[in-house]
Amino acid sequence: MEQENSQFLATERVGRLMLKFAVPCVISLLVAALYNIVDQIFIGWGVGMLGNGATNVVFPLTVAALAVATMIGDGACSFVSISLGRGDQEHARRTVGNAVVLALASGLILAAVYLAGREPILWLFGATESNFACAWDYFTWIGMGIPFYMFGQTMNPIIRSDGSPRFAMASTLAGAVANVILDPIAIFVLGWGVKGAAIATVAGQVITAALALWYLFRMKLVKLDRPSFTLRPSLMAKFIPLGFCSFLSQISLVVAMATTNNMLRLYGGRSIYGEDIPLTVLGIVMKVFQIVISIVIGMAAGCIPVVGFNFGARRFERVRELMWKLLTAETILGVAAFAVVELFPLQLIGLFGSESELYEQFAVLTFRIYLCLIILACVNKAAFIFLQSLGKPIQSTFLSLFREVILAVPLVMLLPRKFGLMGVLYSMPVSDAVAFVASVIIIVQTDRQLKREIAAGREKA
Question: Is 225 helix (H, G, I), strand (E, B) or coil?
Fold first, then answer.
């Protein structure tokens, strides 16, 4: 019966399936990204630049938690989809159960590490003397909410793989709406400042986690039983590598952000802008960029169940069609994003509060230089995730590691030696340009492989 329920993934038109699965996923990730954006906007108007600088210091630590959650969730989503395509209900069941246990355990461990090591962690991620007190308050509450956040983020792709992308979207949306309502109350009415923003964020995460827990016991395609929650190392070794690209793409972003924050503090202090303006501005620019990347990832990750099922069912024509439609859509998105960041940088930074002329001047430079190759960044990210959905963790992981660690980290450390503070801004487009070449090579190879599989299938028929 479960196999019959999932057969529409092999028969429905590819374009319609993309809309059905990708749109709710885009909204879910977009809403998740808005958690931080909403905090930044309200803090910018209620606390000021130092408050925004503090949230930018803490942001990489939230991304680190997301990295672990997406590794578990996306890996489980891919493996569950491939298992369902093969008609293997037992592996699908046990994968979901193991993912749930891993998410809960890792959330508790990471929260304990964060809360125990707050002071050295904040200095490591670029806190300044001016914003340290705000960063401490914000991080304390965010740290306590980490288990709820990680459980909700892990369950989101699993719920999509169960054929319920709308519920995945609704659970995330409910938490975000709560955050938007509670943020101004906590910051302006109760006067809690950055602590209030953090409490509002955690409240939203608790709501999302509660809804995910409710769904867990009402799944449609995957019916859980008690043995499903028994950890099986052999099974984890199969599904976790499929999410390793998602992990690397997020955790490498953490490394890059930590390095970038420290470079901004060092070279910003030697410039006319000082330490706090570059740290605050680039953090805001990255949040705006995160909105675009959330759409990119949502479009690609939303297609994982469709790609995985058809790949498992050996319907390679549909897999190839989806690949090129996805890359085309990501390119169009990149063009639209490029137009916005290049034409309206002052309006974008103005959403986060009004500051000095120097602050606005650096913001315009940062948007226009740092994101000048955002089109290539969109295509790169889509390529990483598509390869992951094909069960190709090595190629996917290589591309992600190459872009985010091998290129980004050395460049953000080396270019400022020649170009000063501007070198930090140049590091992003240079990394995207080189990574794009590698992405094109691997995508062309993948396309040729799919063509061979299609030809072989026709010969057998």
Answer: coil
Determine the Cα–Cα distance for residues 45 and 333; give it in Å rounded to an integer: 30
pLDDT at residue 2 is higher than 50: no
Q: How many whole angstroms separate alpha carbon 336 and alpha carbon 35? A: 23
pTM above 0.85, yes or no: no
At residue 146's C-alpha, the angle toward residues 112 and 257, to 5°, is: 95
Confidence of residue 1 (pLDDT cuts 50, 70, 90): very low
User: For the chain, which residues make up each domain, given as ranges?
Assistant: 13-460
């986690």: which residue's tokens? 209
3-state secondary structure of 303: coil
- What is the largest distance, in Å, between two alpha-carbon atoms of the chain? 71
Buried b (16+ CB within 10 A) or exposed e, 367-381: bebbbbbbbbbbbbb
- Top pLDDT among 422 and 9 is at 422
End-to-end CA distance of the chain: 27
CA-closest candidate to residue 366, choices 240, 430, 280, 439: 280
Residue where the block lists tokens 């938690």 = 65
Query: How far is Cα 60 from Cα 62, in angstroms, rounded to an integer?
Result: 5
CA distance 418 to 252: 24
pLDDT tens, position by position, 323-358: 888 889 899 999 999 999 999 998 888 888 777 888
The first and second tokens of residue 156, run together, are 């989101």
Distance CA 256, CA 409 (A): 5
Residue in 288, 285, 305, 297 with CA at minimum distance from that of residue 245: 297
Report the alpha-carbon distance of residue 363 to residue 151 in Å, rounded: 35
**Dihedral Cα 394, 296, 367, 196, nearest 10 deg:** -100
C-alpha to C-alpha distance for 214 and 227, rounded to whole angstroms? 19
What gap in Å lies between CA 236 and CA 251, rounded to an integer?
20
Classified as helix, coil or strand, 356 is coil
CA distances from 353 to 44, 51, 177 (A): 5, 11, 22
- Alpha carbon distance 443, 79 (integer Å): 21
